[in-house]
């Protein structure tokens, strides 16, 4: 099975969490795109969706799936999204697609966060993948200095602006021994909009596609 086949398999497995009348939070990225395509096959069952990015909203509309503003709907029962890295504790790194802020907002208001991923995303310890941090542009050098103090190597994601008009700094080499603590610490730096650590509010379920099927890891 290719990585893409695994992403599609994980995405399709998430359909089992959809209930009649749900408004579903939808993530961003290639795995989330497979979920959107799968969602189109059951769109009559749901009332609509809340998108975590402009790209996702566009793909949903392309399938004629209704996209609602979060303020219209309040809390959501379900959020489905991919990840760049995931641990068996269901802590995640997200943000390669740059949609981390809206993703974190939608995850926060959702009762259940189902993360869908191919098996390459499962790691023992987060941090092999550079940690994305969304930053207000004027704080770029100050936040970069703070990342160096934390032991990281910050790099501006060039030619990229988030849906919120901000920049992304990708931070390599961070020692992420305690993801919850590091998320809190980076959150407190002025100018940081969102850090791509999803540990304080991690996933509730990880659907991990392998060559032998979909493995389900659930929060205890
Ligand atoms: C976007 C994300 C994505 O979920 C993450 O980058 C995984 O992407 P893909 O499904 O393409 O591997 O966090 O901001």
Overall CATH class of the largest domain: Alpha Beta
Q: Tell me the structural class.
A: alpha/beta
The appropriate CATH architecture of the largest domain is 3-Layer(aba) Sandwich
Main sheet summary:
6 strands, mixed
How many helical stretches? 7
Q: Which range does the strand content fall in? A: 25-35%
> Could you report the average pLDDT, rounded to the nearest whole number?
97
SSE series: HEHEHHEEEHEEHEEHEEEE
Number of domains: 2
Spatial extent as radius of gyration: 17 Å
Strand element count: 13
Cofactors and ligands: ribulose-5-phosphate
Described by the principal axes of the CA atoms, the overall outline is globular
The residue fraction in helices comes out at 25-40%
Q: Any low-confidence stretches, pLDDT <50, length ≥5?
A: none
Q: Strands of the largest sheet, in order across it?
A: 2-1-3-6-12-13
CATH fold name of the largest domain, please? Rossmann fold
Distance between the termini: 30 Å
Commentary on this structure:
With 220 residues, the protein is an alpha/beta fold. The chain has 2 domains: 141 residues, Rossmann fold; 65 residues, ACT domain (Alpha-Beta Plaits, 2-Layer Sandwich), CATH 3.30.70.260. It has a 6-stranded mixed beta sheet with strand order 2-1-3-6-12-13. A 4-stranded antiparallel beta sheet has the order 8-9-7-10. The protein has a 3-stranded antiparallel beta sheet with strand order 4-5-11, covered by helices on one side. A hairpin with a 2-residue loop joins β12 and β13. The radius of gyration is 17 Å and the shape is globular. The relative contact order is 0.18. The chain binds ribulose-5-phosphate. Ribulose-5-phosphate binds next to α2 and α5.
């Amino acid at each position: 099975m290719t990585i893409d086949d695994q992403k599609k398999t994980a995405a399709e497995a998430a359909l089992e969490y959809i209930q009649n009348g749900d408004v579903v939070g939808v993530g961003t990225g290639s795995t989330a795109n497979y979920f959107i395509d799968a969602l189109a096959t059951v769109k009559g069952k749901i009332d609509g969706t809340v998108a975590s990015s402009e790209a996702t909203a566009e793909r949903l509309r392309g399938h004629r799936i209704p996209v609602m503003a979060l303020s219209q709907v309040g809390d959501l029962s379900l959020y489905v999204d991919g990840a760049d890295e995931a641990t068996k504790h269901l802590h995640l790194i997200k943000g390669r697609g740059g949609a981390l802020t809206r993703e974190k907002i939608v995850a926060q208001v959702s009762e259940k966060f189902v993360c869908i991923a191919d098996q390459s995303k499962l790691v023992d310890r987060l941090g092999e993948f550079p940690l994305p941090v969304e930053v207000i542009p004027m704080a770029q050098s100050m936040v970069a200095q703070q990342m160096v103090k934390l032991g990281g190597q910050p790099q501006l994601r060039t030619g990229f602006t988030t849906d919120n008009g901000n920049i992304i700094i990708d931070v390599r080499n961070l020692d992420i021994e305690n993801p919850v603590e590091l998320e809190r610490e980076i959150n407190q730096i002025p100018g940081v909009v969102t850090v791509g650590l999803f540990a304080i509010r991690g996933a509730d379920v990880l659907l991990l596609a392998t060559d032998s099927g979909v493995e389900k890891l659930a929060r205890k």
